[in-house]
Give the backbone structure.
Amino acid sequence: MERKALIYPGLKVAIMGLGISGRAAARYASHCGAEVFISDSRDEQRFLAEDGEFIATLACHFEAGGHSREFLRHAELLLVSPGVNLELPLLKMLKEDGVRVAGELAVAAGQIGVPVVAVSGTNGKTTVTTLIGEILKGAGRRVFVGGNIGTPLYEYLMEPNGSDSYDIVVVEVSSFQLESAGNFAPDVALLLNISPDHLDRHLSMDRYVQAKMHLFQHQRPGNIAIINGDDPLCRQLPPGVQSVVQSFGKSEGCTAVIENGRITAMIGGEREEYRLEGLMPQNDIVLMNYAAAILAVRSQGCSYAQTSAGLAAFCPLPHRIEFIAEINGVSYYNDSKATNTGAVIAALAQFAGNVILLAGGRDKGDDYRLLRESVLASVKNVVLLGEAADLLEAALSDVTDICRARDMDDAVGLAAAAAEPGDVVLLSPACASFDMFTSYGHRGNAFKKAVLALRARSGPLEKSAQRHAN
Protein backbone atom coordinates (compact mmCIF):
# COMPACT_ATOMS: atom_id res chain seq x y z
CA MET A 1 0.00 0.00 0.00
CA GLU A 2 1.60 3.25 -1.14
CA ARG A 3 1.61 6.23 1.17
CA LYS A 4 1.54 9.91 0.32
CA ALA A 5 5.01 11.16 -0.55
CA LEU A 6 6.75 12.95 2.32
CA ILE A 7 8.27 15.47 -0.11
CA TYR A 8 6.18 17.24 -2.74
CA PRO A 9 6.40 20.37 -4.95
CA GLY A 10 6.62 23.62 -3.00
CA LEU A 11 7.50 21.99 0.36
CA LYS A 12 10.32 23.78 2.18
CA VAL A 13 13.00 21.15 2.93
CA ALA A 14 16.23 21.68 4.87
CA ILE A 15 19.35 19.51 4.89
CA MET A 16 22.11 19.66 7.51
CA GLY A 17 25.53 19.02 5.96
CA LEU A 18 26.54 17.92 2.47
CA GLY A 19 28.08 14.52 3.02
CA ILE A 20 27.10 11.55 0.84
CA SER A 21 23.66 11.32 2.42
CA GLY A 22 23.14 15.09 2.57
CA ARG A 23 23.96 15.63 -1.11
CA ALA A 24 21.62 12.81 -2.14
CA ALA A 25 18.88 14.25 0.09
CA ALA A 26 19.30 17.71 -1.42
CA ARG A 27 19.18 16.38 -4.97
CA TYR A 28 16.10 14.29 -4.20
CA ALA A 29 14.26 17.19 -2.54
CA SER A 30 15.03 19.38 -5.56
CA HIS A 31 13.98 16.53 -7.86
CA CYS A 32 10.59 16.50 -6.09
CA GLY A 33 10.13 20.22 -6.67
CA ALA A 34 10.75 21.25 -3.06
CA GLU A 35 12.31 24.56 -2.00
CA VAL A 36 15.69 23.51 -0.60
CA PHE A 37 17.61 25.03 2.35
CA ILE A 38 21.15 23.74 2.99
CA SER A 39 23.00 24.35 6.24
CA ASP A 40 26.69 23.43 6.47
CA SER A 41 29.32 23.71 9.21
CA ARG A 42 32.20 24.61 6.86
CA ASP A 43 33.18 28.27 6.63
CA GLU A 44 31.61 30.00 3.65
CA GLN A 45 34.80 30.31 1.60
CA ARG A 46 35.57 26.59 1.82
CA PHE A 47 31.91 25.62 1.41
CA LEU A 48 31.54 27.58 -1.82
CA ALA A 49 34.91 26.43 -3.14
CA GLU A 50 33.97 22.78 -2.63
CA ASP A 51 30.22 22.83 -3.25
CA GLY A 52 29.38 26.14 -4.88
CA GLU A 53 28.65 24.52 -8.24
CA PHE A 54 26.36 21.98 -6.56
CA ILE A 55 24.48 24.76 -4.76
CA ALA A 56 24.11 26.76 -7.96
CA THR A 57 22.76 23.74 -9.82
CA LEU A 58 20.04 23.25 -7.21
CA ALA A 59 19.29 26.99 -6.97
CA CYS A 60 18.80 26.56 -3.23
CA HIS A 61 19.14 28.71 -0.11
CA PHE A 62 22.19 28.08 2.07
CA GLU A 63 24.05 29.08 5.20
CA ALA A 64 27.65 28.19 6.04
CA GLY A 65 29.80 28.31 9.16
CA GLY A 66 27.33 26.44 11.38
CA HIS A 67 23.70 25.43 11.80
CA SER A 68 21.31 28.12 13.05
CA ARG A 69 17.75 27.92 14.28
CA GLU A 70 16.94 31.16 12.46
CA PHE A 71 17.82 29.66 9.09
CA LEU A 72 16.51 26.12 9.53
CA ARG A 73 13.15 27.17 11.00
CA HIS A 74 12.17 28.38 7.51
CA ALA A 75 11.77 24.73 6.58
CA GLU A 76 8.73 22.51 7.06
CA LEU A 77 10.80 19.32 6.87
CA LEU A 78 14.40 18.71 7.95
CA LEU A 79 16.17 15.70 6.42
CA VAL A 80 18.88 14.38 8.73
CA SER A 81 21.86 12.23 7.84
CA PRO A 82 22.52 9.14 9.99
CA GLY A 83 25.40 10.92 11.71
CA VAL A 84 23.14 13.67 13.11
CA ASN A 85 22.20 12.98 16.73
CA LEU A 86 18.43 13.42 17.09
CA GLU A 87 18.95 14.58 20.69
CA LEU A 88 20.74 17.76 19.63
CA PRO A 89 19.18 20.79 21.37
CA LEU A 90 18.88 22.51 17.97
CA LEU A 91 16.67 19.71 16.64
CA LYS A 92 14.47 19.85 19.70
CA MET A 93 14.02 23.60 19.20
CA LEU A 94 13.19 23.12 15.52
CA LYS A 95 10.55 20.55 16.43
CA GLU A 96 9.07 23.14 18.80
CA ASP A 97 9.00 25.50 15.80
CA GLY A 98 6.92 22.94 13.92
CA VAL A 99 9.68 21.54 11.72
CA ARG A 100 9.29 17.82 11.06
CA VAL A 101 12.53 15.77 11.29
CA ALA A 102 12.99 12.63 9.18
CA GLY A 103 15.66 10.40 7.66
CA GLU A 104 15.91 8.68 4.28
CA LEU A 105 14.04 5.56 5.44
CA ALA A 106 11.04 7.68 6.42
CA VAL A 107 11.17 9.40 3.02
CA ALA A 108 11.32 6.03 1.24
CA ALA A 109 8.47 4.48 3.26
CA GLY A 110 5.67 3.52 0.91
CA GLN A 111 7.46 4.98 -2.14
CA ILE A 112 9.29 1.83 -3.27
CA GLY A 113 7.25 -0.17 -5.73
CA VAL A 114 9.16 -3.47 -5.38
CA PRO A 115 9.92 -5.78 -2.43
CA VAL A 116 12.40 -4.40 0.11
CA VAL A 117 14.87 -6.51 2.09
CA ALA A 118 16.41 -4.59 5.00
CA VAL A 119 19.43 -5.87 6.93
CA SER A 120 20.46 -4.62 10.37
CA GLY A 121 22.50 -5.82 13.35
CA THR A 122 25.59 -4.78 15.23
CA ASN A 123 27.94 -6.86 13.08
CA GLY A 124 27.79 -8.45 9.64
CA LYS A 125 25.33 -6.03 7.98
CA THR A 126 27.48 -5.19 4.98
CA THR A 127 28.48 -8.80 4.34
CA VAL A 128 24.90 -10.09 4.47
CA THR A 129 23.50 -7.19 2.42
CA THR A 130 26.14 -7.78 -0.25
CA LEU A 131 25.63 -11.55 -0.19
CA ILE A 132 21.86 -11.28 -0.58
CA GLY A 133 22.32 -8.85 -3.46
CA GLU A 134 24.82 -11.14 -5.21
CA ILE A 135 22.62 -14.24 -4.88
CA LEU A 136 19.62 -12.35 -6.26
CA LYS A 137 21.66 -10.97 -9.16
CA GLY A 138 22.95 -14.45 -9.91
CA ALA A 139 19.33 -15.60 -10.07
CA GLY A 140 18.64 -13.01 -12.77
CA ARG A 141 16.98 -10.38 -10.61
CA ARG A 142 17.56 -6.64 -11.12
CA VAL A 143 18.73 -5.57 -7.68
CA PHE A 144 19.29 -2.15 -6.10
CA VAL A 145 21.75 -2.51 -3.20
CA GLY A 146 22.12 0.55 -0.99
CA GLY A 147 21.46 2.33 2.27
CA ASN A 148 24.16 2.36 4.93
CA ILE A 149 26.36 0.26 2.64
CA GLY A 150 27.16 3.37 0.58
CA THR A 151 24.47 4.26 -1.97
CA PRO A 152 21.61 6.25 -0.38
CA LEU A 153 18.05 5.10 -1.00
CA TYR A 154 17.42 8.56 -2.45
CA GLU A 155 19.28 7.31 -5.53
CA TYR A 156 16.64 4.62 -6.04
CA LEU A 157 13.85 7.16 -5.56
CA MET A 158 15.33 9.33 -8.31
CA GLU A 159 15.45 6.51 -10.88
CA PRO A 160 13.74 7.86 -14.04
CA ASN A 161 11.74 4.65 -14.49
CA GLY A 162 11.18 4.03 -10.78
CA SER A 163 10.33 0.44 -9.96
CA ASP A 164 10.59 -0.51 -13.64
CA SER A 165 14.39 -0.38 -13.27
CA TYR A 166 14.61 -2.94 -10.46
CA ASP A 167 12.90 -6.11 -9.25
CA ILE A 168 13.96 -5.79 -5.61
CA VAL A 169 15.73 -3.43 -3.19
CA VAL A 170 18.25 -4.72 -0.65
CA VAL A 171 19.24 -2.12 1.91
CA GLU A 172 21.62 -2.07 4.87
CA VAL A 173 20.18 -0.06 7.75
CA SER A 174 21.98 1.17 10.87
CA SER A 175 20.59 1.99 14.30
CA PHE A 176 21.11 5.68 13.47
CA GLN A 177 18.95 5.37 10.37
CA LEU A 178 16.27 3.42 12.21
CA GLU A 179 15.89 6.20 14.80
CA SER A 180 14.49 8.45 12.06
CA ALA A 181 12.81 5.72 9.96
CA GLY A 182 9.20 6.88 10.37
CA ASN A 183 6.81 4.28 8.93
CA PHE A 184 9.48 2.34 7.04
CA ALA A 185 8.26 -1.25 6.71
CA PRO A 186 10.49 -3.68 4.77
CA ASP A 187 8.95 -6.77 3.24
CA VAL A 188 11.82 -8.79 4.73
CA ALA A 189 13.67 -7.51 7.81
CA LEU A 190 16.84 -9.21 9.08
CA LEU A 191 18.33 -8.60 12.53
CA LEU A 192 21.66 -10.41 12.65
CA ASN A 193 22.81 -9.80 16.23
CA ILE A 194 22.91 -7.16 18.96
CA SER A 195 25.94 -6.36 21.11
CA PRO A 196 27.12 -3.09 22.69
CA ASP A 197 27.94 -0.45 20.08
CA HIS A 198 27.53 3.30 19.57
CA LEU A 199 26.65 3.74 23.24
CA ASP A 200 28.24 7.19 23.07
CA ARG A 201 25.26 8.09 20.86
CA HIS A 202 22.47 5.86 22.25
CA LEU A 203 23.59 6.29 25.90
CA SER A 204 22.26 2.88 27.02
CA MET A 205 21.82 -0.66 25.70
CA ASP A 206 18.06 -0.38 26.16
CA ARG A 207 17.93 2.59 23.79
CA TYR A 208 20.23 0.87 21.31
CA VAL A 209 18.04 -2.26 21.28
CA GLN A 210 14.93 -0.08 20.94
CA ALA A 211 16.43 1.60 17.86
CA LYS A 212 17.12 -1.77 16.26
CA MET A 213 13.55 -2.93 16.93
CA HIS A 214 12.17 -0.06 14.82
CA LEU A 215 13.01 -2.42 11.94
CA PHE A 216 9.91 -4.52 12.71
CA GLN A 217 7.43 -2.04 14.17
CA HIS A 218 5.57 -1.20 10.97
CA GLN A 219 5.74 -4.54 9.22
CA ARG A 220 2.38 -5.96 8.15
CA PRO A 221 0.92 -9.49 8.04
CA GLY A 222 2.76 -11.47 5.37
CA ASN A 223 6.02 -9.57 5.85
CA ILE A 224 8.95 -11.60 7.18
CA ALA A 225 11.16 -10.95 10.21
CA ILE A 226 14.40 -12.96 10.23
CA ILE A 227 16.22 -12.92 13.57
CA ASN A 228 19.21 -14.51 15.27
CA GLY A 229 17.64 -17.29 17.31
CA ASP A 230 20.72 -17.62 19.52
CA ASP A 231 20.68 -13.94 20.55
CA PRO A 232 18.30 -13.15 23.43
CA LEU A 233 18.25 -9.46 22.52
CA CYS A 234 17.18 -10.23 18.95
CA ARG A 235 14.35 -12.37 20.29
CA GLN A 236 12.89 -9.42 22.25
CA LEU A 237 10.65 -8.32 19.40
CA PRO A 238 8.28 -5.40 20.02
CA PRO A 239 4.76 -6.30 21.21
CA GLY A 240 2.27 -6.75 18.41
CA VAL A 241 4.73 -7.58 15.63
CA GLN A 242 2.59 -8.77 12.73
CA SER A 243 5.23 -10.32 10.49
CA VAL A 244 6.08 -14.00 10.08
CA VAL A 245 9.11 -14.67 12.30
CA GLN A 246 11.92 -16.93 11.09
CA SER A 247 15.20 -17.58 12.89
CA PHE A 248 18.70 -18.85 12.28
CA GLY A 249 21.36 -20.20 14.61
CA LYS A 250 22.51 -23.28 16.48
CA SER A 251 19.46 -23.41 18.74
CA GLU A 252 16.93 -26.17 18.31
CA GLY A 253 13.80 -24.92 16.59
CA CYS A 254 15.51 -22.33 14.36
CA THR A 255 14.23 -22.14 10.78
CA ALA A 256 17.85 -22.45 9.58
CA VAL A 257 20.01 -24.55 11.89
CA ILE A 258 23.83 -24.47 11.87
CA GLU A 259 25.48 -27.74 12.80
CA ASN A 260 28.79 -29.43 11.90
CA GLY A 261 29.70 -26.86 9.25
CA ARG A 262 26.42 -27.10 7.37
CA ILE A 263 23.10 -25.26 7.34
CA THR A 264 19.77 -27.07 7.39
CA ALA A 265 16.77 -24.88 6.56
CA MET A 266 13.04 -25.59 6.59
CA ILE A 267 11.64 -23.88 3.49
CA GLY A 268 7.94 -24.27 2.70
CA GLY A 269 7.76 -27.31 4.93
CA GLU A 270 10.66 -29.00 3.12
CA ARG A 271 14.11 -29.67 4.61
CA GLU A 272 17.05 -28.24 2.64
CA GLU A 273 20.68 -28.91 3.44
CA TYR A 274 23.50 -26.58 2.42
CA ARG A 275 26.89 -28.30 2.63
CA LEU A 276 29.44 -25.48 2.57
CA GLU A 277 32.77 -27.22 3.06
CA GLY A 278 35.48 -25.63 0.95
CA LEU A 279 33.34 -22.67 -0.13
CA MET A 280 34.59 -20.18 2.45
CA PRO A 281 36.55 -19.80 5.70
CA GLN A 282 34.77 -22.17 8.06
CA ASN A 283 33.77 -20.26 11.18
CA ASP A 284 30.58 -19.52 13.07
CA ILE A 285 30.45 -15.88 11.99
CA VAL A 286 30.39 -16.81 8.31
CA LEU A 287 27.84 -19.60 8.83
CA MET A 288 25.48 -17.31 10.74
CA ASN A 289 25.68 -14.71 7.96
CA TYR A 290 25.04 -17.34 5.30
CA ALA A 291 22.08 -18.82 7.19
CA ALA A 292 20.41 -15.39 7.43
CA ALA A 293 20.98 -14.77 3.72
CA ILE A 294 19.56 -18.18 2.77
CA LEU A 295 16.27 -17.43 4.54
CA ALA A 296 16.06 -14.00 2.90
CA VAL A 297 16.67 -15.07 -0.69
CA ARG A 298 14.53 -18.22 -0.46
CA SER A 299 11.66 -16.02 0.76
CA GLN A 300 12.05 -13.95 -2.42
CA GLY A 301 11.80 -16.80 -4.89
CA CYS A 302 15.39 -17.90 -5.36
CA SER A 303 15.56 -21.66 -5.87
CA TYR A 304 17.72 -24.02 -3.84
CA ALA A 305 20.08 -24.37 -6.83
CA GLN A 306 20.33 -20.59 -7.34
CA THR A 307 20.98 -20.05 -3.64
CA SER A 308 23.68 -22.73 -3.48
CA ALA A 309 25.36 -21.32 -6.58
CA GLY A 310 25.32 -17.81 -5.11
CA LEU A 311 26.90 -18.98 -1.87
CA ALA A 312 29.62 -20.81 -3.77
CA ALA A 313 30.43 -17.76 -5.92
CA PHE A 314 30.55 -15.20 -3.10
CA CYS A 315 33.91 -13.68 -2.18
CA PRO A 316 34.16 -12.67 1.51
CA LEU A 317 34.59 -8.93 2.06
CA PRO A 318 37.94 -7.54 3.25
CA HIS A 319 38.74 -6.47 6.83
CA ARG A 320 36.60 -9.24 8.36
CA ILE A 321 38.88 -11.94 9.85
CA GLU A 322 40.82 -11.68 6.61
CA PHE A 323 43.90 -13.88 6.40
CA ILE A 324 46.92 -11.82 5.31
CA ALA A 325 50.04 -13.97 5.61
CA GLU A 326 51.91 -16.64 7.51
CA ILE A 327 55.36 -15.51 8.58
CA ASN A 328 57.72 -17.83 10.42
CA GLY A 329 54.80 -20.00 11.47
CA VAL A 330 52.71 -17.07 12.73
CA SER A 331 49.35 -16.30 11.04
CA TYR A 332 48.25 -12.68 10.63
CA TYR A 333 44.55 -11.75 10.35
CA ASN A 334 42.95 -8.39 9.59
CA ASP A 335 39.63 -7.84 11.40
CA SER A 336 39.65 -4.04 11.29
CA LYS A 337 35.86 -3.97 10.82
CA ALA A 338 35.52 -5.20 14.43
CA THR A 339 34.72 -1.80 15.93
CA ASN A 340 32.90 -3.06 19.05
CA THR A 341 33.39 -5.65 21.77
CA GLY A 342 30.80 -8.03 20.33
CA ALA A 343 32.73 -8.32 17.07
CA VAL A 344 36.01 -8.93 18.91
CA ILE A 345 34.44 -11.63 21.10
CA ALA A 346 33.05 -13.33 17.99
CA ALA A 347 36.43 -13.13 16.25
CA LEU A 348 38.37 -14.55 19.19
CA ALA A 349 35.94 -17.47 19.34
CA GLN A 350 37.19 -18.57 15.90
CA PHE A 351 40.71 -19.31 17.21
CA ALA A 352 41.79 -22.08 19.57
CA GLY A 353 44.08 -19.74 21.51
CA ASN A 354 47.60 -18.29 21.33
CA VAL A 355 46.28 -14.99 19.96
CA ILE A 356 48.23 -11.77 20.07
CA LEU A 357 45.49 -9.13 19.85
CA LEU A 358 45.98 -5.66 18.37
CA ALA A 359 43.27 -3.35 19.71
CA GLY A 360 42.42 0.28 20.29
CA GLY A 361 41.24 3.37 18.48
CA ARG A 362 38.51 5.89 19.21
CA ASP A 363 36.15 4.98 22.03
CA LYS A 364 32.42 4.66 21.26
CA GLY A 365 31.23 4.18 24.84
CA ASP A 366 31.68 0.39 24.88
CA ASP A 367 32.35 -1.57 28.08
CA TYR A 368 35.72 -3.18 27.43
CA ARG A 369 35.36 -5.40 30.49
CA LEU A 370 33.07 -7.50 28.30
CA LEU A 371 36.26 -8.70 26.59
CA ARG A 372 37.78 -10.17 29.75
CA GLU A 373 36.45 -13.72 29.47
CA SER A 374 37.41 -14.08 25.80
CA VAL A 375 40.81 -12.50 26.32
CA LEU A 376 41.52 -14.75 29.28
CA ALA A 377 40.57 -17.82 27.22
CA SER A 378 42.32 -17.02 23.95
CA VAL A 379 44.81 -14.14 24.20
CA LYS A 380 48.43 -14.33 25.36
CA ASN A 381 49.33 -10.69 24.69
CA VAL A 382 47.49 -7.47 23.81
CA VAL A 383 49.14 -4.66 21.85
CA LEU A 384 47.26 -1.37 22.31
CA LEU A 385 47.28 1.78 20.21
CA GLY A 386 45.09 4.84 19.81
CA GLU A 387 42.98 7.05 22.05
CA ALA A 388 41.19 4.25 23.92
CA ALA A 389 44.39 2.50 25.03
CA ASP A 390 44.04 3.68 28.64
CA LEU A 391 40.45 2.41 28.84
CA LEU A 392 41.36 -0.96 27.35
CA GLU A 393 44.37 -1.37 29.64
CA ALA A 394 42.27 -0.56 32.70
CA ALA A 395 39.76 -3.24 31.67
CA LEU A 396 42.25 -5.98 30.72
CA SER A 397 45.59 -5.46 32.47
CA ASP A 398 44.93 -8.11 35.13
CA VAL A 399 43.98 -10.87 32.66
CA THR A 400 46.75 -10.62 30.05
CA ASP A 401 50.09 -9.01 29.25
CA ILE A 402 49.77 -5.58 27.63
CA CYS A 403 52.13 -3.31 25.73
CA ARG A 404 51.64 0.00 23.96
CA ALA A 405 52.41 0.86 20.33
CA ARG A 406 53.05 4.25 18.75
CA ASP A 407 51.44 3.41 15.42
CA MET A 408 50.43 0.43 13.27
CA ASP A 409 53.96 -0.39 12.12
CA ASP A 410 55.11 -0.42 15.73
CA ALA A 411 52.11 -2.55 16.76
CA VAL A 412 52.85 -5.21 14.12
CA GLY A 413 56.52 -5.17 15.11
CA LEU A 414 55.71 -5.66 18.79
CA ALA A 415 53.29 -8.47 17.97
CA ALA A 416 55.83 -10.22 15.75
CA ALA A 417 58.47 -9.99 18.48
CA ALA A 418 56.12 -11.62 20.99
CA ALA A 419 54.81 -14.30 18.63
CA GLU A 420 55.96 -17.90 18.38
CA PRO A 421 55.24 -20.49 15.66
CA GLY A 422 51.60 -21.52 15.89
CA ASP A 423 50.45 -18.15 17.23
CA VAL A 424 47.88 -15.85 15.61
CA VAL A 425 48.30 -12.07 15.34
CA LEU A 426 44.82 -10.58 15.08
CA LEU A 427 43.93 -6.94 14.44
CA SER A 428 40.47 -6.70 16.02
CA PRO A 429 40.32 -3.21 17.51
CA ALA A 430 36.97 -2.98 19.43
CA CYS A 431 37.03 0.75 18.59
CA ALA A 432 36.36 3.19 15.78
CA SER A 433 39.28 4.13 13.57
CA PHE A 434 38.93 7.89 13.43
CA ASP A 435 41.69 8.81 15.89
CA MET A 436 44.50 7.68 13.58
CA PHE A 437 42.78 6.65 10.32
CA THR A 438 40.04 7.85 8.00
CA SER A 439 38.08 4.58 8.12
CA TYR A 440 38.28 0.97 9.26
CA GLY A 441 39.42 0.17 5.70
CA HIS A 442 42.29 2.64 5.97
CA ARG A 443 43.27 1.04 9.30
CA GLY A 444 43.03 -2.47 7.86
CA ASN A 445 45.14 -1.53 4.86
CA ALA A 446 47.78 -0.03 7.16
CA PHE A 447 47.89 -3.35 9.02
CA LYS A 448 48.20 -5.29 5.75
CA LYS A 449 51.00 -3.01 4.58
CA ALA A 450 52.89 -3.48 7.84
CA VAL A 451 52.46 -7.27 7.74
CA LEU A 452 53.56 -7.54 4.11
CA ALA A 453 56.59 -5.36 4.86
CA LEU A 454 57.42 -7.71 7.72
CA ARG A 455 57.12 -10.68 5.37
CA ALA A 456 59.42 -9.03 2.84
CA ARG A 457 62.03 -8.48 5.56
CA SER A 458 61.73 -12.11 6.71
CA GLY A 459 63.07 -13.38 3.36
CA PRO A 460 64.29 -16.98 3.46
CA LEU A 461 62.69 -17.57 6.87
CA GLU A 462 59.26 -16.86 5.38
CA LYS A 463 59.92 -19.31 2.56
CA SER A 464 60.94 -21.97 5.05
CA ALA A 465 57.84 -21.37 7.12
CA GLN A 466 55.68 -21.56 3.98
CA ARG A 467 57.24 -24.90 2.96
CA HIS A 468 56.56 -26.19 6.50
CA ALA A 469 52.93 -24.98 6.33
CA ASN A 470 52.44 -26.79 3.01
About this structure: The chain is about 35% helix and 20% strand. The radius of gyration is 24 Å. The domain at 12-102 is CATH 3.40.50.720 (Rossmann fold). The longest strand covers residues 244-249.
